[in-house]
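re the bet — no i am not wrong, look at it urself. input seq straight from the record:
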Amino acid sequence: MQWLDPKPSGNFPAATLLALARAAVERSPDNPLLKARLGALLVRAQDFTPALAALEEAAARDPSGFGEWNALAQCYLKLGRAQDVLALARRLRDREPSALLETSRGLALRQLGRFEEARAALMDAIALSDDDLSPHFELLHMIACRKDGAALLDACDAMPARVQNLALVTGHRALGFSMLRRSDAEGLVDLATQVTRLRFEPPAEFGGIERFNQVLANEILGDPDPSPSRREGRNINYKDDLYRTPAKWALRDFTRSAVEAYLATTRPRTGLPPPPSSGTLWGAHTILRRSGRNGQHLHHRAYVSTIYYVSLPALDPDSDRGALELGCCDEYTRGHAPIWGLRRLRPEPGTLVIFPSHIFHDVVPTGSDQPRISVVADLLPSPG
């Protein structure tokens, strides 16, 4: 396995950009370009009502110079104004074709119950997209929610070759097999053999696992996600420069070795894409409190995912609070109970869990004000 270092994005924190945009608009309130920029940043922060006001004002002041049509469409969509999305798409479709705009059009048609038209729009968005997986995800999710296994498998097979081996497609293919009660599903998702837990022994200079985890917890709590959180009790800080302190370097080296061993020893499963020959380790800090959870999901671009548990609140040892739930997809699909069942793993500080990235998973809320802290890392295969 050849490990590549991720390229830093060089982006400023979203909260910083938003504060700068607000200050610029205060200085020049009649500047439509600044208003449009503020509106687009508010969309990124999921603050859609003030975003819509800023974007509509900017578009009205300078319609020929306005360029944030995709952000405007997202506002209409999130605020339940599907007809406005369709009207905007009709105006711009020939002049400025866009995968994002076609995705919004597809979702608007879905809101209106026009399923076949929505599917066609999302297929158009996929044809226009390059690296963005949004239309691929929205199409597969829409079909999964209808619990039509045959249609879901057809959609997976119709995906472009460049995404066929991604966890996004593999996970939905497994769902399609499960909906049809086909044993192929258990070849793709085997919760007994595909999930591994390892204990970390930090280098001697850290003075043991408890001290190591305390150092790591202090670093993470001192570096929360600067973006506004829209989900109660959850703070996830996605970082392309995650491993930049001695403690995180030690964890990175352990995680890399653990992933290599996992790829070399885990029994091959029918239908799984071959493991990558090279890739990057990309991660995030996750802090959950009270009702905080991630929601049922998979990791679209990854091959293998890992979770290192740093610290936990005091929990009842006989309850599943705070557990990692693997295989769950009933909420995601609006009711499908998968044939592979469910597996819950109680988190243990100082341990690393490894599993294929196409397995849907979630966290059982702790109900505690004390933080449940973990470090998530994905093996992202290198392109080509």
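see?? The mean pLDDT is 92. told u. also The domain at 2-188 is CATH 1.25.40.10 (Serine Threonine Protein Phosphatase 5, Tetratricopeptide repeat). so pay up
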